[in-house]
């Protein structure tokens, strides 16, 4: 087990060499809801979407992705995914990943959207703390489980400074 007190978390641009690990984490994190494959992650990178990884000692423990379309003042961003290894959940990794995505969205002055399972109270709470509000319900959004999702929205905000979170080379 990694000693969280002495090991620094780094958020960096996701490396293609880490896509296999992303797909492995997907199998663990989303077993009932069509986990993403290596090819799905590769397609996201090939499309030019913004993906970052959370690393401790070069080991990928989480990942997150964002797509931005349009230009300010009408730009929109969508959080495509955030995943954190179970051993590191609740330790601020998801928060660090989300903050990096939001900085990117804010740089584009984009309103940001996401979907989250209605029963994922921890994630919903984290999103609310970062300015998201529930704006809709998507029945049976997640397949094949049929779980419902909230659609959440966060208005565009002025870009944060890099000092507000621990991130390196994430641009």
UniProtKB/TrEMBL annotation:
Keyword Transferase: yes
Gene Ontology MF annotations: N-acetyltransferase activity
Domain N-acetyltransferase span(s) in chain numbering: 9-157
Biased composition (Low complexity): 159-171
Residue numbers spanned by region Disordered: 146-171
UniProt KW Transferase keyword: yes
Domain of life according to the entry: Bacteria
Keywords recorded for this protein, A-Z: Acyltransferase, Transferase
Protein name: Ribosomal-protein-alanine N-acetyltransferase
Species lineage: Bacteria, Bacillati, Actinomycetota, Actinomycetes, Pseudonocardiales
């Amino acid at each position: 087990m990694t000693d969280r007190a002495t090991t620094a978390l780094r958020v960096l641009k996701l490396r293609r060499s880490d896509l296999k690990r992303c797909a492995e984490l997907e199998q663990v994190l989303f077993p009932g809801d069509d986990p993403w494959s290596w090819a799905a992650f590769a397609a996201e990178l090939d499309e030019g979407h913004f993906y970052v990884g959370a690393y401790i000692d070069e080991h990928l423990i989480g990942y997150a992705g964002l797509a931005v379309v349009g230009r300010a003042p009408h730009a929109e961003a969508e959080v495509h995914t955030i995943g954190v290894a179970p051993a590191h959940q609740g330790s601020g990794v998801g928060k660090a990943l989300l903050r990096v995505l939001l900085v990117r969205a804010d740089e584009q002055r984009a309103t940001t959207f996401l979907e989250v399972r209605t029963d994922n109270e921890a994630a919903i709470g984290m999103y609310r703390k970062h300015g998201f509000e529930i704006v809709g319900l998507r029945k049976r959004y997640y397949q094949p489980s049929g779980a419902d999702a909230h659609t959440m929205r966060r208005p565009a905000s002025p870009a944060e400074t890099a000092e507000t979170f621990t991130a390196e080379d994430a641009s």
